[in-house]
Description:
By secondary structure, this protein is mainly beta. The chain folds into two domains: 15-71, no CATH class; 73-178, Immunoglobulin-like. It is built from two helices and 14 strands; from the N terminus they run αβββββαβββββββββ. It has helices spanning 7-10, 48-55, and strands at residues 17-18, 23-25, 28-30, 38-40, 43-45, 58-62, 67-71, 83-91, 94-101, 107-114, 117-125, 134-141, 151-160, 167-178. The strands form five sheets. It has a four-stranded antiparallel sheet with strand order 11-10-13-14. Strands 1-4-5 form a three-stranded antiparallel sheet, with no helix packed on it. The chain is globular, with a radius of gyration of 21 Å. It starts with 6 loop residues before the first helix and ends in a 6-residue tail after the last strand. Residues 93-166 form the Bacterial spore germination immunoglobulin-like domain. This is Copper amine oxidase-like N-terminal domain-containing protein.
Amino acid sequence: MLAVPTFADTVKQYVLVKVGYPVYVNGQEYTSGEQPILNYQGNTYVPMRSVGDILGADVRWNSELNRSEITYGGGMPHANNAFRHIQVTGSNGHYTVTGEARVFEAVMNYVVSAQNNDLAESTYMLNEGAPTWSPFSLSIVIPADQLPLSGTLKIELFEYSAKDGSRINVMPLVLETFTPRVNN
Length: 184
């Protein structure tokens, strides 16, 4: 005679309840009709990407490793196979991003986004392509009416794969984090 566990023993059920109280992150209230705040046994759950945007963290799905990844503060990469010595300066829609790149055929790309909305995307031609490291300086201007009232303005440096056209060697960077102004 064999002992076979019943299906019910292997299934766990979770009852999540939409919360009726506000959640504040750095003084900013999180609100979303599409992604509500939930509670499970006294623990509050807020969507990772939303909190990441508010805090200036990079939240992404790594399809190669099949996992979610959050990179925040000092955890942001300062170099990868294609970009190194990166520095970001500026504020209020005027930014300079400098560093060195080593990319195929001297073509690097970038996209500027806020709250998962692309605001600007462009290609930049370096003086030399890989395997040489070539310096670059990007001047980024985002009009005031496109700047977020709250959340994080980000830039991703990357190159397109010669094999399949996908983005590779992606380097996410924070340009500026905006917090809502409180009128006194």
